[in-house]
Amino acid sequence: MTDPMVNPIEAPIQNTGPLNGIKVLELGTLIAGPFASRMLAEFGADVVKVESPKEGDPIRKWRVLHEGNSLWWAVQARNKKSLTLNLKAPEGQQILRKLLAQTDILVENFRPGQLEKWGLDAPTLQQLNPGLITVRLSGYGQTGPYKDRPGFGAIAESIGGMRFLSGEADKPPVRVGISIGDSLAGLHAVIGALLALHHRNKTGQGQVVDVALYESVFNMMESLLPEYDFAGVVRQRSGASLPGIVPSNTYTCGDGSYIVIGGNGDAIFKRLMTAIGRADMAENPEMASNDGRVKHTALIDQTIGDWCAGRGIEAALEVLQAADVPVSKIYSIADIVKDAQFLARGMIEEHAFTAGRTLKLPGVVPKLSLTPGRTRWLGPTLGEHNADVLKDIGLSEAQITQMRERGVI
Predict the structure, then answer these.
(1) What's the whole-number mean pLDDT along residues 46-73?
(2) Which of the four pLDDT bands, split at 50, 70 and 90, describes residue 355?
(3) Is 57 in a helix, a strand, or coil?
(4) Is 143's pLDDT higher than 70?
(5) 206 and 130 in contact (C-beta within 8 Å)?
(6) Would you give the end-to-end CA distance of the chain in angstroms?
(7) Is 306 among the catalytic positions?
(8) Is the pLDDT of residue 320 over 90?
(9) Among 98, 205, 358, 392, whose Cα sits 20 to 30 Å from the Cα of 176?
(10) Distance from C-alpha of 327 to C-alpha of 262, rounded to nearest angstrom
(11) What residues are paired with 349 via a beta bridge?
C-alpha cells in the first residue's frame, strides 16, 4: 500500500515526468484547453500559460475563492508557469511569435479564426516552427457551417447527444454536475497531442489537432448511432436505470441512502438473487440471460428494491459484497476524502497552501510505473513567471521592466 497522503510540498519537486523537455504554450481560458495542458504539465511538460495582464484567466474568480483566487485554480493550473501578455498589442504578438518558435505544442481554445487574425494561420506557424503541434479546441471545430458559433461545454453536451439522455424519462433533461463536455474535449486534445508528437518524433513534422467539443461528447455515445440507423431506436432518458441491461439500477435503502447495484452479468445475477433470498429467481431459466431478464425488468427491480428498503445501506453492502456483487454507495466528496481505496492509491494529495493551512487536490492519473505524473507546484499567481519565461527567449531585465511599464505584460 502506498502512503495514503502525499507530503506537503515545501520546495519544487524535480521534474522526472515522461514529457520532461517538451515545451507547451497555452493560449486560452476556462476549462477545455487549460484542462488539456494541465494533464501535459502533470506528466512533466514545461507549460507556459499566457494570461491577460489585468485579469488573467476568468477561472481564477470562479466558485469558491481564497485571497482572490479560486480553489479550482490551484489544481487547474498546477505545474504551469503564468506569463502575462497583451496579445492585442503588436509587441505582445512579437513575443508570442518568439515563444512559438521554441514551442513543441501550442494549445489554444479561441473561437476559430482568432489565430488567423494575428497572422498566425497554419502555413505561417509551419514556416515559423515546422515541428510545431497546434492543438485547437473549439465548440464545433475549425470547419463546417457552425464553426463560427460560440460553443461552451453545455452546448456541446446538448448537440453531442449527452443531455438528451440525462435525467428522468418524464422530466426535462439535466446536466451532470461538472463541465463534462469541456473535460472530455481536453482528454481528446491530450490524446491528439501525443499522437501528433509520436508522428513528429518519426518525421519531424508538426501538424494541427482539431478538437471539437461536440465531437468529443459524441464519441462517448456508445451504440446510439448504429441502433438508430439499423433499428430506428432513439435512446431515451431512463433515470438511474440502464435499459436493456438488467439489473443495473439505483435503489433506496431503509435509512434513505442510495445504493447502486450492477447485477447484469449472468453469474452475477444468480449470486445477487441468491444473496437477497430469491433463489427461485436465480434459478429461473427465463432469467438466465440478459435478453430474458429484460422481459422481467419491472419484477426484478421491484424485488431488489424491496430488499434494499428493508435494511440500512451498510447492512446491504455487507451482504452484497460478501456475494461478490458489484455494488456501491453513491459517494459525496465527504465520502471520497476518507475512502481507503482513494487514499491507498494516492488520489488525495495534500500540499502546503497558505499560512497554517494545507490544501487537498486530486491525485494525478493515469498511473505510470516508471515515470508517474506529479504535482510540482500549485496554480501560480498572475504573471508569477514573467521574468523566467521572457529571459528564456533572450529578453533582458531592462526590457522586461519596460514592457511591464507599457502594459505589455
Answers:
(1) 94
(2) confident
(3) coil
(4) yes
(5) yes
(6) 47
(7) no
(8) yes
(9) 358
(10) 6
(11) 6, 361
Rounded-to-integer distance, Cα 182 and Cα 197, Å: 22
Distances (CA, A) of 396 to 23, 220, 401, 407: 21, 49, 9, 17
Per this entry, what is the length of the chain?
Answer: 409
- Report d(CA 33, CA 44) in Å as an integer: 17
% of the chain residues with pLDDT over 70: 97
- Domains, the chain, ordered by start: 23-220+353-405 (3.40.50.10540), 248-336 (3.30.1540.10)
Contact predicate 217/186, CB 8 Å: no
C-alpha cell at 218: 459524441
Beta strands in 181-236 (DSSP E): 208-212
CA distances from 318 to 252, 308, 312 (A): 16, 12, 10
Beta bridge mates, 259: 251, 329
- Name the residue among 28, 86, 365 with its Cα closest to residue 211: 28
Question: Which one of the listed residues 170, 182, 301, 306 is annotated catalytic?
Answer: 182
How many C-alpha atoms does 243 have within 13 Å on its Cβ side? Answer: 12
CA neighbor of 234 nearest in space, from 243, 244, 224: 224
Pairing of strands 133-138, 46-51: unpaired
Query: In sequence order, what are the beta bridge partners of 312?
Result: none
The DSSP symbol for 174 reads -
Q: For a pLDDT cut of 90, what percent of the chain falls above it? A: 92
Distance (Å, whole) CA 366 – CA 317:
28
**25 touches 1 (CB < 8 A):** no
The enclosing H or E element of 195 equals helix 180-203
Cα distance between residue 29 and residue 46, in whole Å: 18
b/e burial code for range 278-308 (CB count within 10 A of at least 16 → b) = beebbebeebeeeeebeebbeebbebbbebb
